[in-house]
Design a protein that fits this description.
Layout lengths: L1 H7 L4 E4 L8 E8 L4 E7 L9 H14 L4 H17 L22
Antiparallel strand pairs: 1-2, 2-3
């Protein structure tokens, strides 16, 4: 209901992330100004290293938009990037407890 209010107030879209939900799948929903709800799903990885996923997702969406992607393309690319960063997160040995995702998975061996 709140997402629809935000769109009615002028937002081009509202992304509702489902990373903290239960299950084997991580499902996000994008409500766009045309009233459609698009579903983006990905694998949920068994890791505690998910600190910063929301900030990373929003930054990746913004980067996609800056590169000229549509909102849907930017969300799809951002979700894939964050998913890969989570999958690689256990390769980092930073501190203890709830650690960060691996932002540089594509360039660090």
């Amino acid at each position: 209901a709140q997402a629809r209010r935000l769109v009615a107030a002028g937002a081009r879209g509202v992304l509702i992330k489902g990373g903290h939900a239960e299950g084997d799948e991580s499902v996000d929903h994008l409500l766009t100004a045309d009233g459609l709800v698009r579903r983006f799903s990905g694998t949920r990885y068994p890791t505690r290293n998910t600190h910063g996923t929301g900030c990373t997702l929003s930054a990746a969406v913004a980067a996609g938009l800056a590169k000229g992607m549509t909102l849907e393309q930017a969300v799809r690319a951002a979700k894939a990037y964050v998913s890969d960063a989570i999958a690689a997160a256990d390769r980092l040995a930073i501190g203890a407890g709830h650690g960060p995702v691996h932002h540089f998975f594509a360039v660090w061996a």
